[in-house]
Structures are given as structure tokens and as C-alpha cells.
Amino acid sequence: MKKLFLIFSSIVVISLSGFISNTPKLSNDEIISAKVDSVLSLMTLDEKIGQLNQLSFGIGWGPTIKVAVPDEYKAQIREGKIGSFLNAIGAEFTYELQKVAVNESRLKIPLIFGLDVIHGFKTTFPVPLGEAATWQPEIVEMSAHYQAIEAASAGIHWTFSPMVDIARDPRWGRIMEGAGEDPYLGSLMAAAHVRGYQGNLSDLNIIACVKHYAGYGGAEGGRDYNTVDFSERTFRDIYLPPYKAGVEAGAHTLMASFNEIGGIPSSGSKYLLNDILREEWNFKGFVVSDWNSIGELILHGFASDLKHAGEISLNAGLDMDMESRSYITHLKELVDEGKVDESTIDESVRRILRIKFMLGLFDDPYAYCDKEREQKNIMTNDIKLASLEVAKRSFVLLKNEKNILPLKKDYKKIAIIGPLANNSVDPIGGWGGLGDSADVTTVLEGFKNYVDGSSQILYSKGCNIDDQDKSGFKDAVTKAKKSDVIILCVGEDRDMSGEACVRSTLDLPGVQEDLAKELLKTGKPIISVLMNGRPLSINWLNENANAILETWFAGTMAGDAIAKVLFGDYNPAGKLPATFPRTVGQVPIYYNHKNTGRPGDLKNHYTSKYLDLPLTPLYPFGYGLSYTTFEYSSLNLSTNKITEDDSIVVSVKVKNSGKYEGEEVVQMYVQDLVGSVTRPVKELKGFKKIMLKRGEEKTVNFTIHEKDLRFTAADMKFKSEPGLFKVFVGTNSVDVNEVQFELID
Ligand code: GLC
After folding, report:
1. Distance from residue 61's CA to the centre of ligand 1 (Å)
2. What average pLDDT does the chain have?
3. Centre of ligand 1 from the C-alpha of residue 433, in Å
4. In the CATH hierarchy, which top-level class contains the domain 630-743?
5. Closest residue (by CA) to atom 7 of ligand 1?
6. How many Å lie between the centroid of ligand 1 and the Cα of residue 132?
7. Which residues are registered as beta bridge partners of 648?
8. Are 87 and 155 in contact (CB under 8 A)?
9. pLDDT over threshold 90, residue 9
10. pLDDT in tens, 291-344
11. How are the residues of the chain apportioned to helix, strand and coil, as percentages rounded to the nearest 5?
């Protein structure tokens, strides 16, 4: 420590001298760089390589709450062979690990602890696809802020979140972890997560990690880890923007993805990890691999062995090796053989040390290991209320026939039925961190919490989520017959979405639909509550249920949020961040598609369509109803011609013409009618969520600048092109009014 003190004190002198002799003071960044270089200058090659090595704690998967530090890990930490752990959790346990690094290693470089805090650490928030359905970046930022408080209080410095992969195939289970199909919405949600997690890097903030860089959601067939192969233009204009938005929001790390793009695995791609990330975007943070994604270059047929994989990845710009052990095992030989320059290793070490300095770990390595904080800051009322608020705002009202919702408060008997009706496990959703089912409010509990003694609540599970057992139907029908209304809670289990959880169908699993059909025969109204991690082809429910509320996996407060929304305490205003297909056979189906030379026309055989399906999805991108109604009028433009120096104000009047006050997400889309390449039929370019009292009307304005019209043109330059454009404004991507303008040279 003495040596380090001398170095740091010399830096202090440098910076003070600048102050005294009025030479320019060093900036914060310059001071950190000087500190990093000082530490780097003391490091042996082994110690440098150790900083690039990340190991997972615990046996296999899942967070490790509290185990004694095994000697083999202590020895490696002591020898400076480990720079980071993932899945080491708890103020006390991370303290034990940190103590070894800070007291017993030669240079006392602190460890950085990472964990997948995707939608909650202990208090679970809605899954990210649900958070995206709020169309409120500020709400997502608040969610991430609270997640960070819990995680940081439990010793976690760094989350492997946000997952920002665009997904156009709902068979892909990781659609649950992201913000859906649209680059504009996805970019705003990526930036909101980063701001919420990182804040001002206080000791209640955590480092964000934008993942999975890049293009992971484009897996063929929706099969996780599968080949990704799309044009550079599709990559640049559809899949890349959310990663860039995360970087521009200040994310300090990225995670390289498992997949290849067009033959080059991301974890070995210099084009991605250096050319785009460093040279185009000037990213200064570090990149961690996905779990053994370096080692998987061998299976990709891109590396001959683990040593070759390490050579490729390090030289491509992948800084930290999660769990492949390629770097710690082979980098020294690779340097000796001249296949990797030590200067390249230095660059990666600098990036990692810089983040450790920025987090204050050198100043106080134990700042996140405070047991009192841990007790005080986790599962607090504030955090639970925040989770409840996010949950209510994430719900999407898909159907509400004859305004059966909100539920009349005088319903005497309410039957809560279905495998998700009194289920405290699945509302946590995938990647639920330490979310505990014991803390979850089920729908049944939420209703009991809500209704006073005046209403009787009946319950029946009816069936399981995913088997063929119909033995519970009889009891369910009996309870339904005694009720005034049925709340039918159906969907998926939490392990049907998330990593490697790919389904070949989008139907309700098991016999849930059969149960619904039996309940329909009772003649009682059916309000269906959907819990799921992906768009589902709920055609029968759409035809036969009286109302459908999409609740995704709403987290710890699910039951209370659902009861409050169904009874009208909160008027649902969520909008779909991903298209719901009528059947898996329609996939891929997404709103910002191309027109083709033969756009679908059911009256014309020779056009792009299916013989056995309508042209449209079950529910389109941006769709969501309200308990009230909104009327759009007076759509107009401030001008109908602009040059690249001008802008256009799009204005529209929105009136609440219904019986309840409510929020509406007013959406603005643009179409470039003719381009040097074909252009999507529409692209989301703006939205505003407004609150309108009954009868209230507001004018909503959007501004379009020339930069909003840019795309990757035929010459691969990102630019706008003069010509005609259409502007669409409305309540979703289909129900819109349109006007036209021209961009002139
Ligand atoms: C997993 C996931 C990644 C996660 C990492 C660490 O394989 O792909 O999203 O952050 O491993 O758990």
C-alpha cells in the first residue's frame, strides 16, 4: 500500500501544483488516467492478465447468497489472477472476497462484482418487455434507479443490463428481456436504463452493461444462440441503434454476444468491438464477454482452440473474459509468441482499472459492503410502491367488450380461476435475480386485499400451465357457475421465456384454452389476465373473452397491481412494444416492414400474403386500449416543405371522449416514400404520453428535423434524401391519420 500511496500522493501534488502555479488543472478524467497509468506501471504481466479474468461464484448457475470463500479462489485472488466475480452476492460475502484482494494481494487492486440485475435485485419489477410497454422512459429510469439501490446495498457494483437486443421473432425467449421490435423505442429504453442504473455513480449506483452486442435478437428461427445473418443496412438501421443509444447515455460497459453476424462471431469481431465501438462511437469503457463466448469461438469454427480463441478476442478488443479462462490460461504464452502485444493487454487493463477508479473502489473498496445499508435498503416500502407503479403502467388493455372493465365494485361473487390465479412464482418472470415468491402478491391475494367483505372471492386453479391434466376443470366450472364474473389468469410460466427458452408455438400452453372454453359455457363474463414473456397468439381469447389485460410478468406487486387496474384505480395506458401474430406461421411480422413490389392484397392472388390468414397481426405494434376513448383531429404541419436546416412541427388534437380520465400514448410515424433503397412503410419517430381528464382536449406537437429522416442509403452513408414523406399520427401503428411533406435540397 505504501507504494500506491506514494504514487497517489504524487498525483495529488501534480494536480495541486496545477492549481498553485495556475497551469491548467487536470480534469477528473485526466486524474483518473494518471492514477490508472501509475497502477499499470507497477503491474506484472500476470497481474495485468488477472484483471481480464472474470469468474462466476457458486456452483454453476444462479446467484450465490452466502458461502465461505473456498481456498482455491482465495489463492487466485491473492495472486492477482481474478479481476472480477459475477454471482457473488451480499454485503458480507463480497466483503470477504474484497478483503483478500485488498489486504493480501501484492497491488491490492479491488475486485468488481457483477450480477444480472435485469428487472430487480430482490424486489422484482415487471420484466423489461413489460417496462417497455409503459412507453415511459422516465418510469424505466426510476425502476433501474431502485434496482440499483438494492443491488448496490448488497455489494453489487455492476449489472449485466440493459439487454437492448431488437427482437422481431417472439419465438425467441429473450424478447422478454428487451424492449421489443422497434429501434426508436428500444433506444429510448436503453438510455433510460443506463441513466437509472449509473446515475452519478454514487455508492447506490451500479455500472450498466449494454448487451448483447450485437444483433443477438436476429437469431434465425428465433432459436437462441442461432446464426444471425442480415444486411449491413438492416444491422445499422434496425439492430444497432439501441446499443449506440446505451453508449451515448454513458454506459461504461458492454457485453459481447454469443452469436455470429454474417459469419463473424461478435465475441471475435474487430469490426464490432473496435471499428464501430471504439472508432465510430468513441466508447471508453470496457467489454466483457458473455459466459464463455470466447471459448465458443471454437464451436463456431472460428478458433482452433482456446488459446487461438483468446488471441482472436483480445486482439479484436474484447477486454474481460467471463468464465472461458482463455485469457488467464493462454495470454502470457500469446505475448511470448508475439501473437498478442502487451500493449493491447495494457489497453484492456486501463479500461477496467478506469471503471474501478470511477466507482471509487480504490478510495473505499468496501463502500458497497455495508451490512446495515443492506438491511435498510432492500424490499423497502418505497421500492415496493415503485414496483407497483411500474407494474400498473406496464399493463396493456387488449380487449374490453361493452366496457365490462373496470369491474363493478358491486360484483357479489368473483371467481379467480386459472394456473396463474394464485401463483407466486411465475409473476417474477425470467432473470428474476433474488426475487422471492414468498414476497409476491398473487392475483387472488390482490383481489382479497382490494375487495372489502362485500364481495365473495372464489378460487380454482382449473389446470396447470403446461400439461394435459383436465381434472381441475370440474371444480373451476363449479366455482364459475356460482360467480358473477370470472377473472381467468392464463399464460406462460416464467421459464418459457428468457435465455434458451424458445417456443415453436405462440399458443397458450397445455389445456388452458380448453379450460377457457369450458368456462365460457357457464355464460359468465370472462376477464382474461395474461401473464407471459412474449407475444402470444391468443385468437380464441380475443374472439370469446369479454376483456383481456396483458400483464406480462409484473413482479413482486403483480396481484395488487392487477386488482387495482381491473377495478379502475388506475386506467391502463400501456401500448404493445412488439407485434402479436395471429399464429407462429405469420412470423416474422413487424410494423416497420417494407412494402415490397406486391404488397399483400386479399383480392389479388399474386400478392404477398398467406392463403389461410388475414394480412394483419392479431394486435399491432403500439396497440393498447383504455377505459376511456380518445378522439384525434386537426392533424396538420407547420409547413409542407423543409430543407435540411428547417424543422416541421406536427400538431394534432386529442380529446378524451369517454367516461374516465386516462393517459394516451400519441404516436408519430414517418414514411420516406422513395429512397435510393427501399424504405419501411412507417417508422416510429416520436411519441408523447398525455393525461386527459374526461372531456379534456389537448394539442400535441412533435418536431421533425432533417436528422430524423436519415438512414443508411445505397452508398452506405447515413443520411436523408430529398423527396416526399408521410407523417402518421394516432393511437397505434395502424389507426392513424396522415399528412405529407417534402424535404427539398
Ligand atoms: C448468460 C447470458 C447473459 C448473462 C450472462 C451472465 O449466458 O447470456 O445475458 O448476463 O450469462 O449471467
Report:
1. 10
2. 95
3. 12
4. mainly beta
5. 291
6. 21
7. 704
8. no
9. no
10. 999 999 999 999 999 999 999 999 999 999 999 999 999 999 999 999 999 999
11. 35, 20, 45
Q: Which residues of 559-595 are buried (b: 16+ CB within 10 A; e: fewer)?
A: bbbbbbbbbeebbbbbbbbbbbbbbbebbebbbbeee
- Nearest-CA residue for ligand 1 atom 12 is 116
Distance 113 CA to ligand 1 centre (A): 14
| SS3 per-residue string spanning 58-127 | CCCCCCECCCCCCHHHHHHHHCCCCCEEECECCHHHHHHHHHHHHHHCCCCCCCEEEECCCCCCCCCCCC
Residue 5 carries which side chain, given as an amino acid letter? F
> For ligand 1, is residue 499 a contact (CB within 6 Å)?
yes
The amino acid that residue 372 corresponds to is E
CA of 429 to the centre of ligand 1 (A): 16
Q: What is the CATH number of domain 380-586?
A: 3.40.50.1700
CB contact at 8 A, 622 and 576? yes
CA distance 208 to 51: 19
**Quick check: is 484 catalytic?**
no
**For position 18, what pLDDT does the model report?**
43
Nearest atom in ligand 1 to 160's CA? 10
Instruction: Please enumerate in sequence order all residues whose Cβ is within 8 A of that of 607, keeping only pairs 6 or more positions apart, or say none.
Output: 598, 599, 600, 601
Rounded to an integer, what distance in angstroms lies between the CA atom of residue 377 and that of residue 145? 12
Query: Is the separation of the CB atoms in 368 and 203 below 8 Å?
Result: yes
Residue 70: per-residue pLDDT: 83
Q: Say if residue 60's pLDDT is above 90.
A: no
569 alpha-carbon distance from chain centroid: 27
- Give residue 374's pLDDT: 94
- Residue 210's φ and ψ, nearest 5 degrees, are -75, 125
Environment class of 657 (CB within 10 Å of its CB; exposed 0-12, middle 13-18, buried 19+): middle
Give the whole-angstrom CA distance, residue 614 versus residue 602: 8
Domain range annotation of the chain? 380-586, 630-743
Q: Is 457 helix (H, G, I), strand (E, B) or coil?
A: strand
- pLDDT attached to residue 8: 47
Query: Which band of pLDDT confidence, cut at 50, 70 and 90, is reported for residue 26?
Result: confident
Q: What is the pTM of this model?
A: 0.96
Q: Is 290 in the pocket of ligand 1 (CB under 6 A)?
A: yes
- Give the model's pLDDT for residue 64: 58
* Amino acid at residue number 619: Y
Pocket test for ligand 1, best of 290, 296, 320, 434 (most atoms within 8 A of CB): 290
d(CA 210, CA 489): 34
How many residues comprise the chain?
A: 745
pLDDT tens digits, residue range 719-728?
999 999 999 9
Grade residue 22 by pLDDT with cuts at 50, 70 and 90: low
pLDDT attached to residue 67: 64
Q: What's the pLDDT band for 452 if we cut at 50, 70, 90?
A: confident
Active-site annotation holder among 224, 290, 426, 672: 290
Mutate to test the pocket of ligand 1, among 116, 216, 501 (most ligand atoms within 8 A of CB): 116
296 within ligand 1 shell (Cβ under 6 A): no
Nearest to 213 by CA among 275, 159, 165, 161: 165
